[in-house]
Amino acid sequence: MYYKLKANTFFRNYNNIGYIVNIPNNSDRVVNESGALFLSLLSYKAQSLKELSNIALNKFVNVSLIELQNDMKDFYDRFYFEDFLIRGESEKECDNLEKISISNATIKNQFNSYEMQNNIGTQEFLEKYFAKNPKLLSFQIELTSKCNERCIHCYIPHEDILYNIDDNLYYSVIKQLKDIGIISISLSGGEPMLHPNFLEFLKYAQDSDFYVKVFTNLTLLNEEIIKLMQNNRTSVYVSLYSMNEVNHDAITQMKGSFNKTKSNILKLIENNIPVYINCPIMDYNKNDYNEVYKWAKDLNLEVRVDYDIMARCDLTTDNLEHRLKTKEMENIIINILDNNKENQKQTASKELNKDKEYTSDRDLCGACITSCCIDAKGNVYPCTGWNYNCGNLNETSLKDIWEKSPQMLYIRSLNRKDFKECIDCKDIDYCFMCMAKNANESKTGNPLEINNHFCDVARMNRQVIENWREKNL
């Protein structure tokens, strides 16, 4: 039997554990030291079980080759059934199976998996494992702040849409990320395809063994870009606001943007490039998101909605005039629950599986714990949309900023108990504590300053969810 990693599966060895992830499938696993050794032997080129076991044999004491082969086969087969690996009778068969991208039934039992042994989620395990030494796993690069659209809700002030990232800085950052062991990077803007070297940047990231996510409005997509994205290591995230051309273009303030975006989404699908739709909801499209859902569902696309847009990162809030009223948000949540079976399943499971998700000593999010980002000028921030400068990569290495920046260390030190007025709040289980949103709506940029708007949204969210559970469970 032959085995290989799927093209969109990535493995990293972190000290005494291994981490494997298939990003398009949104599935990942953590394995112990023995499992990490087995996975580290795999590559994107098919190898026989005999080859793999012979290499592994000198790492184990008092284990026969036959016994080791049986263990490795059991291990690899389980990851194959979970869609991380390709398996075939020959190298050629593996390559052919990769092309037709077989998706197999999921099996939940993992060989030497911490997730199975400890009955906790992978991300929760990683959070605890790296608690004393946070590990950067994902990173977002703003290739340019320039954009050909002027979206009315955008958190980037339009007067700041001026800069392209320097070529030398980009290549330096990619090399540093590779040394750190990053798995996924996101290329964003502005509109990233406006950068004159977008194609070269994308290819360099792909060749550096990263899974690349591109955040784009898709209006500038062309055949060269499509061809480069067809390597199964790139996915696209695009905002589609409405199936009504007038309403979509009113939000982007770019005439013809709807037709370009819609047409290019279809081109990505035709070329088997993973695409995900973001649908921020505001006053212009509050009655349109259902049509976006229906259109996407017919194409088997995932749609992510955000019904609470954030203020601008320069602490101005005039874009919030387009934010929905709390009652309008309530109607949207009810509608989503009534019509989205996956959302219903998640809502029900949270009720049935009360866990440690909302304990007061839990980290608020992955910002500065497993992720951060840079803007086109090289400034490092905890996350996109939050101008809390942690250092500049033109002056300091990413490793030093990640490990030593006072601002980074401060954000990393915060957790739920720092929101003292929230600890005993009955709505906390339904509150999306976001330091960036807090900071952007604070006159002083304070991430711990609670805005009453978010309290109102949490209260409404709790009432809607509890009413739904009472009615349906």
How would you describe the overall organization of this protein?
Helices cover 40% and strands 14% of the residues. The chain contains 18 helices and 14 strands. Strands 12-11-10-9-8-7-13-14 form an eight-stranded mixed sheet, with helices on one face. A three-stranded antiparallel sheet has the order 5-1-6, with helices on both faces. Strands 2-3-4 form a three-stranded antiparallel sheet, with helices on both faces. β13 (371-374) and β14 (380-381) form a beta hairpin. The protein is globular, with a radius of gyration of 23 Å.
Mean pLDDT across every amino acid position: 87
Strand order of the largest sheet: 12-11-10-9-8-7-13-14
Most strands sheet: 8 strands, mixed
**Could you say which overall geometry the principal axes of the C-alpha atoms support?**
globular
Count of DSSP-assigned helices: 18
Instruction: Count every beta strand, where a strand is a DSSP E run of 2 or more residues.
Output: 14
Broad structural category: alpha/beta
The first-to-last residue Cα distance is: 47 Å
Helix content: 25-40%
The value of Rg in angstroms is: 23 Å
Low-confidence sequence ranges: 102-119, 351-358
Strand content: 5-15%
Secondary structure layout:
Layout: E1 2-5, E2 9-14, E3 17-22, E4 27-31, H1 33-40, E5 47-48, H2 49-57, H3 65-81, E6 85-88, H4 91-100, H5 114-118, H6 122-129, E7 138-142, H7 167-180, E8 184-188, H8 198-207, E9 211-216, H9 223-229, E10 234-239, H10 245-252, H11 257-270, E11 275-280, H12 289-298, E12 303-306, H13 326-339, H14 341-352, E13 371-374, E14 380-381, H15 398-404, H16 406-413, H17 435-440, H18 452-472
Parallel strand pairs: 7-8, 7-13, 8-9, 9-10, 10-11, 11-12
Antiparallel strand pairs: 1-5, 1-6, 2-3, 3-4, 13-14
Helix pairs in contact: 2-3, 13-14, 13-18
